[in-house]
Amino acid sequence: MQVFLQTLVGGLSLGAVYALVAMGFSLVYRTMGLVNFAHGDVLMIGAYTASTFYTSTRLPFAVAIVSAIAVTGLIGLVIERVLRPLENKDVTLMLIGTIGFGMVLQALAILIWGATGRAVASPVKSAPLDVFGLRIRTYDLVVVAIAAIAVVLLVAFLQRTKRGAAMQAVAMDHEAATAVGIHVGRSNAIAFAIGAGLAALAGGLAGPMLYVNPTMGGTLGIKGFAAAMLGGCGNIPGAIVGGLAIGVLDSYAAGHFQGYSELVVFLVFTVLIMIRPTGLFGETTVSRA
Amino acid sequence: MSDLPGLPRFRTFTFAAGVLAVVLAGGCAAPGESKDSGSSGTGPIKIALVDAQSGQLSSLGKWEYKGAKLAVDEWNTAGGINGRKIRLDVFDDQGDPTVGTNIARKIDSQKYLAMIGTAESAVTIAMAPTLRQAEIPNIASGQSPGMVALKSPFLFLNGPTSTTYDETLAKYLVDTKKLKKIAFISNNGAYGKGEHDAFLKALSGRGITPVDDEVVTTDQKDFSAQLTKIRQRQPQVVFIGAEEVESGLIVKQARDLGINAPFAGAAPQGTPVFRDTAGAANAEGTIVSSPYLSNDTSAATKKFAAAYKAAFGEEAELHGAKAYDGTQIMLTAMKNSGVATGKKLADAIRAVKYEGLMGDFAFDATGVGITATSIGIIRKGTLVKAEG
Fold first, then answer.
1. Model confidence, pTM
2. What ipTM does the predicted assembly reach?
3. Which residues in chain A touch residue B248, judged by CB atoms under 8 angstroms apart?
4. What domains lie within chain B, and their CATH numbers?
């Protein structure tokens, strides 16, 4: 029983990070019908930037993460601007473009920070909580709380603000949206910037849990992408459920299947996707080729 | 994503990308094109250094390059070999065996006399058949017993194998410290598997079965399930067979879960990367089996560390030291044999007796030159030699 619960706790904290990654994927997919393959590498840049502000310039952790979000938000805007001429013409080329951007970001990270990577000290110094023999890290609680706040803010933005409503409209029918005077390009740019900001948030939070290095975007990116697909790509609540599900599934598979856990996670994922091709909260999503 | 409307453009794009890739790959590879510089007896002596310079394992590759370069620079400053300068060209294998086999063919066609590297056993094993056929001697830094099993007369190791590391460790833990309750956590990669098997063998030779044997994947980030199981068995010591970063994460999470037993492992657990990832307080007391405990163990290591610091502005460590030893041996063999190539050079390497940073090298028929390691313990963040 103790193993069962402890595994759940471990899975949920990483799951919260996957959920943030998945939300970034979903937001861009929702508005543009595009899977941003550079997302994992934007996350890595965010993690490096946050850790640099935090450890080198000794800014408070929260300020470091906000600065990192600003930096990656700009990167998101640049990616969108470069891809904009292809919008509504060729999604395949845009996909390849995002892959290219990911490689460029990795190369940039190696140039700036070197290939070795760095460990980030936890900003929360207090010892883990002991709840009936279960150990809960205080930092994990912080991560889960911040992820929850990010979700609330994002949903409020999409549903309660004019700009958010406009983005939803672009997602549903971009021609009609253009006709009523919504600037599609700007809407996409905002989606990309927020998506990149979410990646930085995920990366910044993951830094003290993991290890920051130029290839960290690969692992977190692929799990986050799987989470987004599992939840129903483009669906924000789905991304959260998907993220937590992948995190927990990962944790249990590691306990039961040891060295084969990765294989088992993706087998389960494949079976679920075969049963529900549109994901758990699936809706027929946009495809704007 | 549903259709491919711009197929002709798509082709142009992939073609352009392909050209770009070729250009980039060419840019990364070493500029070793001049035809007359091989074994002809004039021009520089060409040695290839093959290691990951990009990707996840590039820190190993960079350390190894620095060690090898230091040795080559020393020899060049002293006038080279027989009046010829030594040229060390770097090839990036990205830690990938497939890339490695391509490089093996390349260094054969470009007439390199010898090869230093790689730091990854899997890449070295992949390259070995080609190098053996081309008769290019290779001094590698991996420690997998799988390399020895190849029985290639052209393959040498600049350090001990996992068997040595883990036999020393078992001797210390079981024979000296009388610890019986040992738990395992190792990854399923080439390194982790090798460590797991070697240590298990060392234990079973002493009639001991581990109280728990957990295997993780090389990509795993959360170890709650396995560590909780280990905690329930209350081991006296936990053996860890994983690379630097993953070991650090395991130890950090283990301490958070309330496991207070010390961890024990080999070379990766003695590195600053491990200590920083785990956190210095969490890494305290870790027992490490290594041929190179610190820069302060002897006059030779102090001299090496000072030169390393002067050249690269950072602290020397195990992998740089191994590559330095390997390169010194290679260059000594070249000098002794009058810059011979192929089998003659391999025989010259086998004949070299060298007092290096790792210990006293004396190669046997399998290409192993060092069969001893020492035990160190992390105390106040640094590795110190264990007493007794």
1. 0.85
2. 0.89
3. 119, 211
4. 12-160+299-362 (3.40.50.2300), 162-290 (3.40.50.2300)
